[in-house]
Amino acid sequence: MKTSRAAAAGALFSILTGLPACSSVAPAPSTGEAKAAATPALVERPNSDAPWKTVAGNSFVVPAGWSVSVHGNETLLEAPETGSFVAIFDIEAATADEAVKTAWKSYKPQASWPLKSVTPIADREGWSERKSYSYQTSPNERRDVEVDVRRANNVWTITISELDQRVEEKRLAQINLIYGKFLPKGYERESFANRKAHKLYAARVAELNRFIARAMALTGVPGVSMGLYQDGHVVFAGGFGVREIGKSTPPDAQTRYMIASNTKALVTLMLAKLVEEKRVT
């Protein structure tokens, strides 16, 4: 197929220019060129973030400015800079490895990047049997190649990301948007919007305390402090476990902790309040 495409391109060049076509075999086309030559498809480019669905009906978001087209069981996204792709396949197969092999055969059969690692990912939001496949690329390529595998409704959904590292850094927020709202067909994300919080009376606080104690035992966390604030009043303030491993002093409401990146969540909350007040967009 590659030779015939090269010959056809050479013949067309000769017709248009009157010059003899080169007899040597042309380099293998890029992924986007191969898709266009093999399976002409309608290419759309939303001007704003747009809800979309894969061939199997799984929902995600196409970021503004990205192109999207469908080729058989593949939904292909390309970054505005061109040459960086996110390809989503819906495949029926017995195992994740078989599904990944089928996806690569359709996307880029000539790909030869060696598999570097396979990392299991916890089930989440209707997806199960999730894994991340990472591939080794050369430094000169300056490309990152990864595969995300997930399963729902007896279908494997395989996402191949082949991205120029510079584009990936620039478009990281948009790439996260693709994955962040990726939901299986028929699944609705739980929301607490417009729900009224339960009153935290003594029995509920006690049950929450028991939950924390169980979680600490399962995860090996030595100490926790917690405060509950409701309707302008402190409902509970106290600690669980020990302040320091090997000692018996318990933590309390005043115990200090290294809170690491939790400050980011607080900044996000404050920004959300500003958006709610329409002071920023």
Total number of helical segments?
7
Any idea how many domains? 3
Measure the end-to-end span.
Answer: 51 Å
Strand order of the largest sheet: 3-4-5-9-8-7-6
* Helix/strand order: HHEEEEEHEEEEHHHEEH
Structural class: alpha+beta
What is the C-alpha radius of gyration, as a whole number of Å? 26 Å
CATH architectural name of the largest domain: 3-Layer(aba) Sandwich
Assess the beta-strand content as a share of residues: 25-35%
What does this entry look like structurally?
By secondary structure, this protein is of the alpha+beta class. The chain has helices at residues 2-17, 31-38, 96-107, 165-170, 172-180, 202-219, 262-276; strands spanning 50-53, 59-62, 67-71, 74-78, 85-91, 115-121, 128-135, 143-152, 155-164, 223-230, 233-241. A 7-stranded antiparallel β-sheet has the order 3-4-5-9-8-7-6. It has a two-stranded antiparallel sheet with strand order 1-2. Strands 10-11 form a two-stranded antiparallel ribbon. The radius of gyration is 26 Å and the shape is elongated.
Provide a concise account of the structure shown.
The protein is an alpha+beta fold and 281 residues long.
Question: What does the secondary structure layout of this molecule look like, with pairings?
Answer:
Layout: H1 2-17, H2 31-38, E1 50-53, E2 59-62, E3 67-71, E4 74-78, E5 85-91, H3 96-107, E6 115-121, E7 128-135, E8 143-152, E9 155-164, H4 165-170, H5 172-180, H6 202-219, E10 223-230, E11 233-241, H7 262-276
Antiparallel strand pairs: 1-2, 3-4, 4-5, 5-9, 6-7, 7-8, 8-9, 10-11
